[in-house]
């Protein structure tokens, strides 16, 4: 068996560096949306030049970290049983969605602060589609309201979820109460 070429070793090293940088960005920005690139490079064990060699701007790094968080979140959300009564399925979906958002709410705030308008929404395409389909099903079952556009109801759920992360972050909503508050608020807003 031939030894890996120098080029493939450099490529593997670069991939490991990228993974460490993205992981460090996710971890640091999940608690502090203002974490600096210096902080992230230090946490990743790389120099600033290495970080900027892979991510030209802080916005590029934040987008990569958010994309990675959403990919991991999608694995969780895709495993949720959304069959049966739409209200019960919504409760299960909201519980998992809240857990994911609680972990990465500050990262999301960082992304909203630097990414172009609409980009965060684009990155959320799969979760938005899942929520849309579930709301449609609930409307067909007669348990979710039909007097408002589905797109508005989906947006409303996201506004409540994201608003709750901010309320927890600033101390107006106890973290241990947030999942219940979010679920009750959204279920009330969706009920027919």
TrEMBL record:
Keywords: DNA-binding, Transcription, Transcription regulation. Residues 15-73 form the HTH tetR-type domain. The keyword Manganese does not apply. Residues 36-55 bind DNA. GO terms for molecular function: DNA-binding transcription factor activity; transcription cis-regulatory region binding. PANTHER family: HTH-TYPE TRANSCRIPTIONAL REGULATOR BETI, HTH-TYPE TRANSCRIPTIONAL REGULATOR RUTR. This is DNA-binding transcriptional regulator, AcrR family. It comes from Nonomuraea jiangxiensis.
């Amino acid at each position: 068996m031939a030894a890996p070429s120098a080029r493939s070793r450099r490529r593997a090293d670069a991939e490991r560096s990228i993974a460490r940088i993205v992981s460090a960005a996710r971890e640091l920005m999940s608690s502090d949306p203002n974490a600096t690139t210096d902080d992230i490079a230090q946490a990743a064990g790389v120099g600033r030049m290495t970080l900027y060699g892979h991510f030209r701007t802080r916005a590029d790094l934040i987008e990569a970290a958010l994309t990675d968080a959403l990919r991991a979140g999608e694995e969780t959300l895709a495993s949720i049983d959304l069959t049966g009564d739409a209200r019960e399925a919504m409760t299960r979906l909201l519980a998992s969605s809240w857990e994911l958002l609680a972990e990465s709410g500050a990262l999301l705030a960082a992304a909203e602060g630097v990414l172009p308008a609409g980009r965060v929404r684009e990155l959320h395409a799969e979760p938005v589609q899942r929520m849309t389909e579930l709301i449609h099903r609930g409307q067909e079952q007669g348990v979710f309201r039909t007097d408002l556009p589905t797109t508005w109801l989906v947006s409303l759920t996201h506004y409540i979820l994201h608003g709750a992360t901010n309320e927890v972050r600033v101390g107006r909503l106890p973290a241990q109460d947030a999942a219940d508050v979010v679920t009750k608020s959204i279920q009330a807003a969706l009920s027919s």
